[in-house]
Amino acid sequence: MSTEQLSGAEIVIKALVDQGVDTVFGYPGGAVLPIYDALFQQNSLRHILVRHEQAAVHAAEGYARSTGKVGVTLVTSGPGATNAVTGLTDALMDSIPVVCLTGQVPTHLIGNDAFQEADTTGITRPCTKHNYLVKSVEDLPRIMHEAFYVARSGRPGPVVVDLPKDVLQALGAYLPKEEVQHRSYNPQTKGERPQIEAAVEALARARKPIIYAGGGVINSGPRAAELLAHLTHATGVPITNTLMGLGAFPGDDPHFLGMLGMHGTYEANMAMHGCDVMIAVGARFDDRVTGRLSAFSPNSTKIQIDIDPSSINKNVVVDIPIVGDVAEVLEEIIAVWNERMHKLDADALAEWWKQIDQWRARDCLRFEQTGDVIKPQHAIKRLYELTKEYEDLYITTEVGQHQMWAAQFFKFNRPNRWMTSGGLGTMGYGLPAAMGVQVAHPGALVIDVAGEASILMNMQEMSTLAQYRLPVKVFIVNNQWMGMVRQWQELLHGERYSESYTDSLPDFVKLAEAYGAVGIRATKPGELDDKIREMLATPKPVIFDCCVDQVENCFPMIPSGAAHNEMLLGPGDRTEKPVSEEGMVLV
Amino acid sequence: MANSPEELRAQTHTEKRTIAVLVDNEPGVLARVIGLFSGRGYNIESLTVTEVDPENRLSRITVVTSGTPMILEQIKAQLGRLVPVHKVSDLTRIGPYVERELALVKVFGAGEKRVESLRIADIFKAKVVDASHEHFVFEMTGKTDKLDAFIQLMRPLGLVDVSRTGVVAIQRGAKGL
Ligand SMILES: Cc1cc2nc3c(=O)[nH]c(=O)nc-3n(C[C@H](O)[C@H](O)[C@H](O)COP(=O)(O)OP(=O)(O)OC[C@H]3O[C@@H](n4cnc5c(N)ncnc54)[C@H](O)[C@@H]3O)c2cc1C
Ligand SMILES: Cc1ncc(C[n+]2csc(CCOP(=O)(O)OP(=O)(O)O)c2C)c(N)n1
């Protein structure tokens, strides 16, 4: 241990550098001024000055999801910390590793209703994986290192470190990260052998198997995605991804059935319903995925690989649970599979694929671009077609119909290329997340697929893009409605469109210009491609205002409370299948 | 010992469980545990906590809860993933265990009722820890239902105040947590 005395603020910076951090997204204020002072006097860390603390956390999420590293934010006490709460909750729901440093009033004033005091650890306890209030500078280096360890290991998540100002100013000794060991937190990453063997045997007997892979594959790292592809190809099994899992398996591989769930493909949902063995890999049986639980995949043996025991048997009882890291467990499963020279029954598998191909033939994502109004699906499909050759492409989204269409029409062949707010569904996520991605990948093409309502929730970050010359492209699918809300009102609330239309929208082209970006508008199908190309050729941030059909709905759709085999495939479907009361109470 | 898939699917009945949790004795740890129960809508029938290993700064929480087998599995998994938690042990399922609670019971009265309260206390092996001409404070240790029965009997005899610790429990036999 070194005896050199550093200030708390210097210890914070040193720990960040020691943890391999190169970028911090933050916003200053009284309580964190000592850290800003220390930042000013060093050049190992880059600080990105956001325009709102919520955006700082989403930017850190985008940074983290696209690099596999921990994202870092720095905000002040009180309002700085409370503004960060939505971002933290988002990161918790989607298992994104983020360390959020918050300023706090000096220790002797805590509890005194001091200026800009908030009970940050109290407020963030339920929306972080863990949090710390640092009461003494002696604890600071240990807590800093623990925070990173907790954020990234096991099931990743956000960690808050609350830093009273006097602790930042006190002098103390630094402790390198190697000298810090966590006392209690030690997640299990290796699966148990008997369970792995049982899973292999169940798979070997399958006649109608399916792999259902989620965000945990991406959390586990690129090796997990490789092993998943290996297992899929070695067995010839069909595979579907959750919204969070897109990119975990190549989107243009013939084994891929597309996304499953509420707005997933017909073939993916029918295959989930009809399978006899299901392998859930880093996926948590979310209600958007399962539909009505009592009718979820009724005849299958369920295997689940998850690093978090609380994800197992939460909504759906599984037959063979395997607690462990996706990559480690898949490695063993493949080894056992090979050792035992298993092969699936070829005739049964061919029969299963034949059935799947019939479902596929329904072509459930079909739409018609007719007339001279741009269909939103067409807009997103063209955006995909015109960008798919880009080697370095990252897509973020806001929340709503545009998000679902992006999930349906973009095909990701690699993990870490798709950032979306799945669990919390946070409108306003996409722009700051794109900002974080672009900071991490300066040369890449980063597009935020947006809705006109969502984008207004963190629009201020256009100013950050301008300041740091981050050429993010914001592609607004502008239907003037909160489309997803409008759709539910149409289908479930008797077409009473209560408060889902946005009047007085800004002129997005002029708004772009006001922010020093470029504004482009497309209103006709005939001009769409050229305008998209113009956007792609622009080396600056762009807001693309794509004016689309205002009343288009997103299909397929499993209405809440319905089962996988009760999907609505298009507008004609709705009258036949009223939504149950049980379904109406669901979100 | 985990439940079998069949047990979990049979979701009709609720069970009561006594769970021991070994945690780091750090600020906020109790708030974390209680927040987990309230935030996720789990029941707490009783919860006790005290430091049990000062040298290693470990506290032991004993929580009595109820739910369907699936909920109970969730409760244990959710407790287990709290960062300062070292160990979660489902005493009810692991096997025989001893469960005790302590109550202090104050009874006010004179004459026949007063004599009767003393007589019942004697039957229940409750100790008198404070007394005047008009009151007793009884101390009683035992299982929750025994304490319940005692307090019930004291009610008509002038019960004024009750303070209970909640349940503490430990596994029988030589093995530690
Ligand atoms: C408007 C809207 C519509 C939506 N519609 C759909 C839809 O149609 N279909 C859909 O799929 N989703 C949809 N979602 C998203 C949905 O709400 C959930 O966020 C999503 O389904 C969860 O994905 P997941 O199961 O992959 O879990 P994630 O949230 O990604 O969780 C990952 C799981 O993997 C585990 N894990 C993490 N790391 C590891 C590791 N290293 N090893 C092993 N396990 C690990 C975690 O413990 C967790 O259980 C929608 C969201 C919105 C906002
Ligand atoms: C912060 C927040 N508030 C409210 C909602 C509820 N919500 C979900 S989708 C949606 C409408 C989004 O509209 P828009 O961004 O225009 O996208 P569209 O559905 O039209 O593509 C709303 C209000 C939400 N997800 N997030």
Automatic annotation (TrEMBL), chain A:
<keyword id="KW-0786">Thiamine pyrophosphate</keyword>
<dbReference type="InterPro" id="IPR012846">
    <property type="entry name" value="Acetolactate_synth_lsu"/>
</dbReference>
<dbReference type="InterPro" id="IPR011766">
    <property type="entry name" value="TPP_enzyme_TPP-bd"/>
</dbReference>
<dbReference type="InterPro" id="IPR029061">
    <property type="entry name" value="THDP-binding"/>
</dbReference>
<dbReference type="GO" id="GO:0000287">
    <property type="term" value="F:magnesium ion binding"/>
</dbReference>
<feature type="domain" description="Thiamine pyrophosphate enzyme central">
    <location>
        <begin position="196"/>
        <end position="333"/>
    </location>
</feature>
<dbReference type="Pfam" id="PF02776">
    <property type="entry name" value="TPP_enzyme_N"/>
</dbReference>
<feature type="domain" description="Thiamine pyrophosphate enzyme TPP-binding">
    <location>
        <begin position="399"/>
        <end position="546"/>
    </location>
</feature>
<keyword id="KW-0460">Magnesium</keyword>
<dbReference type="GO" id="GO:0050660">
    <property type="term" value="F:flavin adenine dinucleotide binding"/>
</dbReference>
<feature type="domain" description="Thiamine pyrophosphate enzyme N-terminal TPP-binding">
    <location>
        <begin position="7"/>
        <end position="121"/>
    </location>
</feature>
<dbReference type="InterPro" id="IPR045229">
    <property type="entry name" value="TPP_enz"/>
</dbReference>
<dbReference type="GO" id="GO:0009099">
    <property type="term" value="P:L-valine biosynthetic process"/>
</dbReference>
<dbReference type="Pfam" id="PF00205">
    <property type="entry name" value="TPP_enzyme_M"/>
</dbReference>
<dbReference type="InterPro" id="IPR029035">
    <property type="entry name" value="DHS-like_NAD/FAD-binding_dom"/>
</dbReference>
<keyword id="KW-0808">Transferase</keyword>
<dbReference type="InterPro" id="IPR012000">
    <property type="entry name" value="Thiamin_PyroP_enz_cen_dom"/>
</dbReference>
<dbReference type="InterPro" id="IPR039368">
    <property type="entry name" value="AHAS_TPP"/>
</dbReference>
<comment type="similarity">
    <text>Belongs to the TPP enzyme family.</text>
</comment>
<comment type="pathway">
    <text>Amino-acid biosynthesis; L-valine biosynthesis; L-valine from pyruvate: step 1/4.</text>
</comment>
<dbReference type="Pfam" id="PF02775">
    <property type="entry name" value="TPP_enzyme_C"/>
</dbReference>
<dbReference type="GO" id="GO:0030976">
    <property type="term" value="F:thiamine pyrophosphate binding"/>
</dbReference>
TrEMBL record, chain B:
<dbReference type="GO" id="GO:0009099">
    <property type="term" value="P:L-valine biosynthetic process"/>
</dbReference>
<dbReference type="GO" id="GO:1990610">
    <property type="term" value="F:acetolactate synthase regulator activity"/>
</dbReference>
<comment type="similarity">
    <text>Belongs to the acetolactate synthase small subunit family.</text>
</comment>
<dbReference type="InterPro" id="IPR027271">
    <property type="entry name" value="Acetolactate_synth/TF_NikR_C"/>
</dbReference>
<keyword id="KW-0028">Amino-acid biosynthesis</keyword>
<dbReference type="GO" id="GO:0005829">
    <property type="term" value="C:cytosol"/>
</dbReference>
<dbReference type="InterPro" id="IPR039557">
    <property type="entry name" value="AHAS_ACT"/>
</dbReference>
<dbReference type="Pfam" id="PF22629">
    <property type="entry name" value="ACT_AHAS_ss"/>
</dbReference>
<comment type="pathway">
    <text>Amino-acid biosynthesis; L-valine biosynthesis; L-valine from pyruvate: step 1/4.</text>
</comment>
<dbReference type="InterPro" id="IPR019455">
    <property type="entry name" value="Acetolactate_synth_ssu_C"/>
</dbReference>
<dbReference type="InterPro" id="IPR002912">
    <property type="entry name" value="ACT_dom"/>
</dbReference>
<dbReference type="GO" id="GO:0003984">
    <property type="term" value="F:acetolactate synthase activity"/>
</dbReference>
<dbReference type="InterPro" id="IPR004789">
    <property type="entry name" value="Acetalactate_synth_ssu"/>
</dbReference>
<protein>
    <recommendedName>
        <fullName>Acetolactate synthase small subunit</fullName>
        <ecNumber>2.2.1.6</ecNumber>
    </recommendedName>
</protein>
<dbReference type="GO" id="GO:0009097">
    <property type="term" value="P:isoleucine biosynthetic process"/>
</dbReference>
<comment type="subunit">
    <text>Dimer of large and small chains.</text>
</comment>
<keyword id="KW-0808">Transferase</keyword>
<dbReference type="InterPro" id="IPR054480">
    <property type="entry name" value="AHAS_small-like_ACT"/>
</dbReference>
<feature type="domain" description="ACT">
    <location>
        <begin position="18"/>
        <end position="93"/>
    </location>
</feature>
<comment type="pathway">
    <text>Amino-acid biosynthesis; L-isoleucine biosynthesis; L-isoleucine from 2-oxobutanoate: step 1/4.</text>
</comment>
<dbReference type="Pfam" id="PF10369">
    <property type="entry name" value="ALS_ss_C"/>
</dbReference>
<dbReference type="InterPro" id="IPR045865">
    <property type="entry name" value="ACT-like_dom_sf"/>
</dbReference>
